[in-house]
């Protein structure tokens, strides 16, 4: 899992000016896998990245959100730093009771379908007993 997070971070960092900054993966804090159809899967992560500027020896830690989405077999990556007040909404994570996983308030990620509940049932009133 940490490899997917760091890959998402690396792809995102390619678009920013991070020259002179060394990065390494910190820790995976939480994750949630959502399958909405056989050809639509997305995985949300909260993790930390440690960074050190070349002019000092101090490592600092920042919390990030990443999404790895697979649609019709093609993967796409999204990654952004989380702000302390981020409270973005995600049906995919909420429907699995993953309330500790934070999402960016600005959106841009797959929010899931409110009608799909774990384990992949459309009707939340479905009787699970046999």
UniProtKB/TrEMBL annotation:
Pfam family, one: DUF3615
Full protein name: DUF3615 domain-containing protein
The DUF3615 domain, residue ranges: 16-104
């Amino acid at each position: 899992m940490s490899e997917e997070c760091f890959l998402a971070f690396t792809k995102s960092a390619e678009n920013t000016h991070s020259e002179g900054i060394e990065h390494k993966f910190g820790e995976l804090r939480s994750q949630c896998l959502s399958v909405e159809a056989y050809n639509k899967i997305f995985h949300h992560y909260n993790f930390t990245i440690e960074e050190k500027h070349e002019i000092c020896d101090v490592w600092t830690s920042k919390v990030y959100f990443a999404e790895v989405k697979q649609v019709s077999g093609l993967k796409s990556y999204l990654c952004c730093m989380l702000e302390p007040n981020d409270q973005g909404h995600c049906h995919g994570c909420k429907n699995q009771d993953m309330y500790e996983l934070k999402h960016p308030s600005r959106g841009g990620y797959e929010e899931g379908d409110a009608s799909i509940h774990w384990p992949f049932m459309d009707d939340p009133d479905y009787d699970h007993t046999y």
